[in-house]
Design brief:
Chain A: Pfam families: OpuAC. Chain A: It comes from Streptomyces seoulensis. Chain A: One of its GO terms (molecular function) is transmembrane transporter activity. Chain A: Residues 1-25 form the signal peptide. Chain A: Keywords: Signal. The complex is a heterodimer of chains A (320) and B (648). Chain A is an alpha/beta fold. Chain A has 2 domains: 11-124 and 256-318, Periplasmic binding protein-like II (D-Maltodextrin-Binding Protein, domain 2, 3-Layer(aba) Sandwich); 125-254, D-Maltodextrin-Binding Protein, domain 2, CATH 3.40.190. Chain A is built from 14 helices and 9 strands. Chain A has helices at 3-21, 52-67, 80-89, 102-112, 133-138, 148-151, 177-183, 196-208, 223-226, 263-268, 270-278, 283-294, 300-310, 312-315; strands at 43-48, 72-77, 94-98, 115-132, 164-168, 188-192, 214-219, 229-232, 254-262. The longest helix of chain A has 19 residues, at 3-21. Chain A is globular. The relative contact order of chain A is 0.17. Chain B has 648 residues and is mainly α. Chain B folds into 3 domains: 100-136 and 337-362, no CATH class; 142-331, MetI-like (MetI-like fold); 393-640, MetI-like (MetI-like fold, Orthogonal Bundle). Chain B is built from 28 helices and 2 strands. Chain B has helices at residues 15-18, 21-43, 57-70, 75-119, 121-136, 140-170, 172-187, 194-201, 205-229, 233-241, 246-257, 259-279, 287-297, 301-327, 336-356, 371-385, 395-416, 419-433, 436-451, 455-485, 487-502, 505-516, 520-544, 548-556, 561-572, 574-594, 602-613, 616-637; strands at 5-6, 643-644. Chain B has a two-stranded antiparallel ribbon with strand order 1-2. The chains are: A alpha/beta (320), B mainly alpha (648). The interface between A and B is large, with 77 and 100 residues.
């Protein structure tokens, strides 16, 4: 359909390309999205990660950029590590919630200098193993990892074979669970839910039936308000105990979450860049928006509007 | 959807090998008797021997690091890939801006007028309604982004496909050389080759478009070649006798004569590109696919459906319109040009008027929120069906039983087989149904999986595929028989099948998890939903095409309806049924992999892991294994002398 128009448009585009780039080198660090700046609008692209907390950051930033600063904001869903690469190429302008990727940071921030640090998000993340609080109340000793084997049979599912099931989430997440299960000699099978959406759906189904479950999970997370969960204490984290991930026997660290911008955008992104550098809120703020998106099923935009209307004192500080 | 089969040139086979199953099996048995003790004593039975694996982790990791470190500086990227990437971006952007400039009124009017010229008033109305529905669902901009992406991808696929098709259509040698390449491209599950494209081009539109081209170009190439070869020799002779040069013959006779095939090729290319537009959202393609994917992130089925419906509508409209164009390809008239001009002028007027009235953008108030009611419905369903249903048990119990009674034994059984016996079984099946070449390809593909060192997870995936195919065939053939025997059932099924076939899988992954829990069972269910329509269609079509004379004579001999079905129709439709099996297998494989996102583990999870962590070694090896699995399964189930295409 509309073959004729598109043909002529693409012929025009192709000849423009021939003229523009015919002999020069293409700059792989300036590869903006084709949908950016359409119709003369000031626009920028934010990367969204698949978990709801990241969607909340982006929703509020997007709402303020659009309504207070007059930008048009595109969003693209990308996992963290590919997002670093996309930042470097200029396909997205910002990554608002990074859970610490030293290797990427070294490559792009220090060596290539195509990505730059843009301050903390104000939220501290922590990964751990969790059981539902209703189960922890019945069996208080479950909160120590040493007792996990005692309960393995209660955590059994069709997928875990004869062992207990510990459910891990998206392949994008930082996890050492397979090594932990092996090194701590736990009678458990790591079952990968494959996506956070699948994991949340399954947790809710378990909770509805008050069934016991053991899951890799993290804070801040809105789901705690719907399904209260209690952390199982793993051997404490010490600096450097996670360097050799195959031999790991300690818990996950607490990670202050950070923001990163495309380096060019950070330099010449004007008000948008200045705003994103100042953007900083708390775990409670983020959860408030997340809950509206994930539980009340508000669109991210409506949720952001509600939060923005309710907390002007917080975001006024971020404006350039 | 469109016709599913592409009748290919029949291969000439040595008569000796053609129809002697016993001889083939005997040959294999002799080979086995000699080889197996040797292999067994050297490497043992059970799992694939470690000595026969090659670890690619090191070299692939190095390659990926090299690309990452040199992408901004190395000439290969600066002067070659960079320009390709820029060209794609410019093209997509050009189309996107043009669509935005037309505004929603202009685009809708243009769509309707084109549909009217090509396919009549009914489809024109349907097209207009479809576009308005996209707007009403609040998806106007994403729909335009997807359209822009599609136009670029389809143009590129058509260009590549026509070039390959010309080569194959004009030269026998190139035809022979290209055929296996195209075959292979068609059985590769798309998910498997996202990673290499991303490595070179990075996340985003160029990678998405190029991955789409790999996926969507083969039907165009195949049909172009078919059209060129099928041109009426008498017409060509006449043209030659008029003294036309080869180039003139090509341009004035052969290509116009192949118009029908070319349009059918365009139709199939469009459909495949559209289905890829969603999968490509995993690598940042944007548009509707990205909306579906983002909705998946917040476990919001309603929002995913709101973005999924425009995809279904686009697919149905594009399919019907290009399909009608193909059927109408014969009557061409000069007077129609005026009507085309009229249509274009109408569009321009509508667009300008809308712009002057300030209505270029979709009115933000005029959107329909379907997310909420849909989520309510889904919640109700999962709350009531998940468990505790009297007598039959809840869906969660079914899933657990299916896993324990079907998936586990199948997986454990496959893994318990000695590695060489798996190769032997593959060889025997492929040889029985095909030629020694297909048997060799299938066996080598299976062996390659072992060499790559992913024998175990591949057998896991294989067990899921087999279970899903079994379910699909039982349901699909039964439904197909019903559809073939009753026009009413057929009519009622058609829209349902359209939706099943075009709805992006991401939309139903979450309800499936909510019903069947995390694990392999939901992946199997999702695969069955996706592969069912093709099996139903091919079965119904095959049964309907059974020679009426044969049926009539059976009836006159007093055969009952059941006897007619079992003794006449089904045996005579054997070829179609085999094709249905083949399609079922290929389609199931494509989706079981996406099941990695809902806990199916195995190869699908590894590919997703590779994409998410930028871990090329894991992702690429798993991707390659999927490709080998696809090749093997295709060869093992592929009816001889008949080529098939993936999806629709």
């Amino acid at each position: 359909m509309r073959l004729r128009t598109t043909l002529s448009v693409s012929v025009a585009a192709a000849s423009a390309l021939a003229l523009l780039t015919g002999c020069g080198a293409a700059d792989m660090t300036k590869q903006a999205s084709p949908f950016a700046n359409a119709g003369g609008a000031k626009s920028m692209t934010l990367s969204v990660q698949s978990w709801v907390g990241a969607q909340s950051n982006v929703a509020v930033a997007k709402y303020l950029l659009e309504h207070e600063l007059g930008y048009r904001v595109d969003t693209v869903q990308v996992d963290e590590i590919p997002a670093w690469d996309a930042l470097s190429q200029g396909r997205v302008d910002a990554l608002l919630e990074d859970w610490s990727h030293p290797e990427q940071e070294k490559r792009y921030v220090h060596d290539k200098k195509t990505v730059s640090y843009a301050g903390g998000l104000g939220v501290t993340g922590h990964i751990g193993w969790f059981v539902p609080t209703y189960f922890a109340k019945q069996h208080p000793d479950i909160t120590d990892w040493k007792n996990l084997n005692k309960y393995a049979s209660q955590f059994r599912t069709a997928e875990s074979g004869g062992k207990g099931q510990i459910m891990d989430g998206s392949p994008a997440y930082v996890t050492h669970d397979k090594a932990l299960v092996k090194n701590l000699k736990l009678n458990y099978q790591v079952v990968f839910a494959g996506s956070e959406a699948a994991q949340i759906t399954q947790i809710k189904q378990f909770a509805k039936e008050k069934k016991p479950f053991l899951s890799y999970w993290y804070t801040p997370q809105w789901l705690f308000k719907k399904v209260p969960m209690t952390e199982v204490k793993l051997p404490p984290y010490k600096e450097g105990c996670d360097t050799d991930t195959a031999k790991i026997t300690c818990a996950y660290p607490k990670t202050p979450l950070r923001k990163f911008l495309n380096a060019d955008f950070a330099r010449s992104g004007g008000q948008a860049a200045a705003f994103l550098k100042k953007f900083q809120w708390t775990t409670e703020d983020q959860n408030e928006v997340s809950l509206m998106i994930a539980e009340q099923k508000l669109s991210p935009e409506d949720a952001a509007k509600k939060w923005v209307d309710a907390h002007p004192e917080k975001w006024k500080r971020w404006l350039p | 959807m469109a016709t599913l089969t592409v009748p290919g040139a029949r291969r000439a086979l040595p008569g000796l090998l053609r129809s002697r199953p016993a001889a083939k099996l005997l040959t294999l048995a002799v080979a086995a008797v000699i080889l197996v003790p040797l292999l067994d004593s050297r490497w043992g039975s059970g799992h694939w021997p470690h000595a026969l694996t090659v670890s690619l982790t090191g070299p692939l990791g190095d390659a990926s690091d090299w690309v990452m470190n040199n992408r901004d500086t190395h000439p290969v990227f600066l002067y070659f890939f960079g320009h390709i990437s820029n060209a794609v971006v410019l093209c997509v952007r050009g189309v996107y801006l043009a669509l935005l400039a037309m505004g929603w009124v202009g685009v809708t009017v243009l769509g309707a007028l084109v549909a009217w010229r090509v396919a009549g008033v009914k489809l024109a109305a349907g097209t207009a309604v479809a576009f308005l529905a996209c707007g009403a669902l609040g998806m106007w901009l994403p729909t335009m982004q997807t359209l822009a992406l599609m136009v670029a991808a389809v143009l590129a696929s058509v260009a590549v496909g026509v070039l390959l098709g010309l080569a194959a259509g004009l030269s026998d040698r190139l035809d022979r050389a290209l055929r296996p390449v195209l075959d292979t491209m068609q059985v590769l599950p798309a998910f498997a080759y996202l990673l290499p494209v991303v490595l070179v081009f990075g996340i985003g539109v160029p990678a998405a478009v190029l991955a789409t081209v790999v996926y969507a170009a083969p039907p165009m190439a195949r049909l172009t070649a078919l059209g060129l070869r099928g041109a009426d020799p008498e017409v060509l002779e006449a043209v030659r006798s008029l003294g036309a040069t080869p180039r003139q013959r090509l341009l004035t006779a052969r290509i116009p004569l192949a118009r029908k095939e070319l349009l059918l090729g365009l139709n199939q290319t469009i459909m495949m590109a559209l289905s890829m537009a969603v999968i490509a959202s995993v690598i940042g393609a944007g548009g509707l696919g990205d909306r579906v994917y983002q909705a998946l992130g917040s476990v919001d089925v309603g929002a995913a459906l709101a973005a999924g419906i425009p995809i279904v509508l686009l697919a149905i409209v594009l399919d019907r319109v290009t399909g009608a164009a193909g059927r109408a390809a014969d009557d061409t008239g000069e007077s129609r040009r005026a009507l085309w001009l009229l249509a274009l002028a109408g569009t321009a007027v509508a667009a300008v008027v809308a712009r002057l009235l300030g209505r270029a953008e979709w009115p933000s108030g005029a959107t329909l929120n379907i997310a909420e009611p849909v989520n309510h419905a889904v919640n109700w369903m999962t709350a009531h069906l998940y468990s505790g249903v009297p007598v039959i048990g809840g869906t969660a119990d079914w899933a657990a039983h299916f896993t324990t009674w079907m998936l586990d034994p199948l997986r454990d059984g496959l893994r318990a087989l000695p590695w060489w016996s798996v190769l032997l079984i593959v060889a025997a099946l492929a040889w029985l149904i095909g030629t020694w070449r297909t048997a060799l390809t299938a066996t080598l593909a299976m062996a390659a999986i072992g060499v790559l060192g992913v024998w175990d997870s591949s057998l896991d995936t294989l067990s899921q595929v087999l279970a899903a195919v079994a379910v699909t065939l039982v349901l699909g053939i039964a439904t197909g028989i019903a559809a073939a025997r009753s026009d009413r059932v057929d009519r009622m099924l058609r829209p349902v099948l359209d939706v099943f076939q075009t709805m992006p899988q991401f939309v139903y992954l979450i309800p499936v998890v909510a019903l069947f829990g995390v694990g392999r069972a939901p992946a199997v269910v999702a695969a069955v939903v996706y592969a069912l329509p093709a099996v139903v269609r091919i079965t119904a079509q095959g049964l309907r095409q059974v020679d009426p004379a044969a049926l009539e004579s059976a009836r006159s001999l007093g055969a009952t309806g059941r006897q007619q079905l079992w003794q006449v129709q089904l045996p005579l439709a054997r070829r179609s049924l085999l094709l249905a099996v083949n399609q079922g297998v290929v389609l199931v494989l494509a989706v079981v992999i996406i099941g990695g996102l809902v806990g199916a583990g195995a190869l699908g999870y590894d590919v997703a892991f590779g994409l998410a962590q930028g871990d090329l070694a894991t992702g690429l090896v798993a991707g390659a294994a999927i490709v080998c699995l696809g090749l093997m399964l295709d060869r093992v189930t592929q009816p001889t002398g008949r080529r098939t295409k993936k999806g629709a």
